[in-house]
Amino acid sequence: MPGQSAGRHVGLVTPTTVRLFTPDDPLRLARGGRLDQVDVAYETYGQLTAAKDNAVLVCHALTGNAHAAGFHPGAAKPGWWDHLIGPGKAIDTDRFFVVCPNLLGGCQGTTGPGSLDPATGRTYGLDFPLLDMADFVAVHRRLMAHLGLTRLLAAVGGSLGGMQVLEWSLSHPEDLANAVIVAASSRLTAENIAFSAVAREAILRDPGFHDGHYAEAGLTPESGLSIARMMAHITYLSGEALSAKFGRAAQQVGQQAGFGVDFAVESYLRHQGEVFSDRFDALSYLYLSRVMDYFDPFARPQATAAIAAARPGVLVIAFTTDWRFDRRHSLRIVARLHGAGVPVTYRCVPSASGHDSFLLPIPRYTDTVGAFLDRAWEVIRA
Amino acid sequence: MTADPSAAGPAPDGARLPDESRPADGRLSPDGSQAPDLSRPPDGARPTDRLRRDLALLGSLIPPGARVLDLGCGHGSLLRHLQAERGCVVQGVEIDDQSVLTAIRRGVPVIELDIDHELNNFDDQAYDVVVLSKTVQAVRRPAEVLRQMARIAPRSIVSMPNFAHWRNGLRLLAGHAPVSKDLPYAWHDSPNVHFGSLADLEELFAGLGLKVERCIPLDPAGRRARCPLGLRNWLASAALYELSGPPATAALARPTPAA
Predict the structure, then answer these.
(1) Cα distance from A60 to chain B (closest Cα, Å)?
(2) What are B188-226's pLDDT values in tens digits?
(3) Distance (Å, rounded) from C-alpha B35 to C-alpha B21?
(4) Which residue, of A182, A229, A356, B64, has the greatest Cβ tally within 10 A?
(5) Residues with Cβ < 8 Å from A123, sequence gap 6 or more?
(6) Which of B180, B219, B198, B231 is nearest to B53 (CA)?
(7) Is residue B131 included in any domain, yes or no?
(8) How far is B17 from chain A (nearest CA, A)?
(9) How many CB atoms sit inside 10 A of residue A207's CB?
(10) Residue A78, SS3?
(11) pLDDT, tens only, A15-52
């Protein structure tokens, strides 16, 4: 509850769900196909000004959700970006109206492959159409319209969230005065795709996957999903962070060597996998990670024409020990935008925590986002 | 080499203010102690900071609307001035944490990179002008940086404090390393790693095939020095150079910046 940890919070929050697409007005997907019904769960913090010029939209990462800040009733832990979003914080809810939706294809309130297909009454499973980064943006834009917003002061996101912001700023830069792209990529490397591939294989080969209709069969591919998570989790940390946290410590002193959970790091990973398979849907994992694999927006013809004309403010942040999307991924975004004549602000923030740094309260990182948004606020108030 | 025709021009006679950009001292970047308050400002206008004299003079050399890259941009004062007053499309490069933060807060786009090793992230001829203001003496490999600058833009503007200024010579004769307005650091505490004269710098330009289009000797206050151009190596405290060329830049190896 508020007051349990240091700093001020946005207080109690509750998610809202809205139907943004209907059979009369379906969502037509970038890779073909359509969805006749799309519901979106979202949370908002802060107040929208009369001029509606202070909206900041937060895009979450692969396994995130709409609960970015504040506390749900009875919850002990705040939202996943609570150190960044709140009164007096970098994304200052005393000044900004913050919106955080669960993304399309997710499993935490927004329509995804685990939702019921209104046409069949069954879960979509693998009949859910393949998604594209542009589809996430299309749904975010519809949410903006629903909220009466014509332009955002900023879109902000980390990892897959940052990739959504990049897509948005390339395809519809007129929507955004500013874009904040943290620990993201404009094109996954073979190594990135390889890790994703193994994660998906673990899910698809789990007998509990049941061709994607596990829910109806009363099954879950929990073993595959937790293995996927365990492996992905390693890529989110750094060797340095793992050594510092666990070293080679034994899980239990005096334990006999075997194939159990002998080392502390094994116990940690197993726990991460188990917790994750309880809260996340395997189908969403497949669909969302696949979107990342295919994302390559600068390969499109005239990719930077729109952003070069609109020239929103762009902030790109990388972290020194991030090897999931190392700084070269961020520098590629910078170089491409830069080559198109778009001024960019870029920082590589020292951190020992790897890719997960974007979720952590690192002062140089939060101060940078804060300074960038302070300036954005000053411009609209001038 | 010609004397500067615009020297009598628009350099404003601004008094030094605490939140000026780079200190007039030739340090790579400020230490942050002079950074403006980054806490939430009150709504409304912030005080307009006035530009340091040498930066105003430097700015007057840059054509309106130009694309400008400033290496070691400090708090971004020059770029902010060029943005607001001359309609330039600007980009800063800086590596000092507080300076980067201050530039961001002021709305100057800044890329946090090491000038010595990471200029290959910029495309060939991506800018009209690239600026290296009182920084060349503090980078590790000035020749390489100057070469990169010529690759990035057809025009470079470089300024450097003059180690051979007569006052510095007197200090040396008196048995001590020079300390002056342009070289304000004690020998053991200086970010400057190269101590060259204007003549030395001009030799380096020539060796790199860089043509000096304009040279403006500066006095310790950052104004155009009132000395014969031929005596600048003894009488100027620092100097500003506008450079062009060399034409054959394609030969420079430029590693792919990103994955």
Answers:
(1) 24
(2) 988 888 989 999 999 999 999 999 999 999 999 999 999
(3) 9
(4) A182
(5) A113, A114, A115, A116, A117, A212, A213, A215, A216
(6) B219
(7) yes
(8) 21
(9) 10
(10) coil
(11) 999 999 999 999 999 999 999 999 999 999 999 999 99
Q: ∠ CA(A226), CA(A228), CA(A234), 5° rounding?
A: 100
Q: How many domains does chain B have?
A: 1
Residues of B in Cβ contact (< 8 Å) with A8: none
Domain span at B131? 53-244
Which residues are within 8 A (CB) of A15 and not within 5 positions of it... i.e. 6 or more apart? A41, A42, A43, A66, A67, A109
Pick the CATH number of A192-290 from 1.10.1740.110, 3.10.310.10, 2.70.50.60, 2.60.120.760: 1.10.1740.110
Positions of chain A with pLDDT under 70:
1-7
Instruction: For chain A, give every domain's residue range.
Output: 16-187+296-381, 192-290
B122 lies within 8 A of chain A by CB: yes
Taking CB atoms and an 8 Å limit, are A368 and B259 in contact across chains? no
Query: How would CATH label the architecture of A16-187+296-381?
Result: 3-Layer(aba) Sandwich (3.40)
CB contact under 8 A, A338 and B123: yes
Cα–Cα distance for residue pair A92/A366, rounded to 1 Å: 11
Scanning every residue of chain A, which has its alpha carbon at the shortest distance from the alpha carbon of B112? A347
Whether this prediction's pTM lies above 0.90 is answered by no
pLDDT band at B247 (very low <50, low <70, confident <90, very high): low
Choose among A332, A371, A382: nearest Cβ to B104: A371
Mutate which of A314, A327, A375 to test chain B, going by most B C-beta atoms within 10 A?
A: A375
Residues 54-113 of B with CB under 8 A from A: 67, 89-91, 97, 100-102, 104-107, 109-113
CATH assignment of the domain containing B162 = 3.40.50.150
Cβ pairs A/B, distance under 8 A: 83
> Can you tell me the mean pLDDT for B78-88?
96
Q: Is residue B207 part of a domain?
A: yes
Of how many residues is chain B composed? 259
Global ipTM: 0.92
Inter-chain touch B259–A315, beta carbons under 8 Å: no
Cβ contact, residue pair B105, A371, below 8 Å: yes
Dihedral sign from CA coordinates of A185, A186, A187, A189: negative
Q: Are the beta carbons of A374 and B113 separated by less than 8 Å? A: no
State both tokens at A241: 């962070």
Residue B94 lies in a domain: yes
Q: What's the rounded Cα separation, in Å, for the pair A152 and B177?
A: 56
**3-class SS of residue A137:** helix
Residue numbers of A annotated as active site: 159, 322, 355
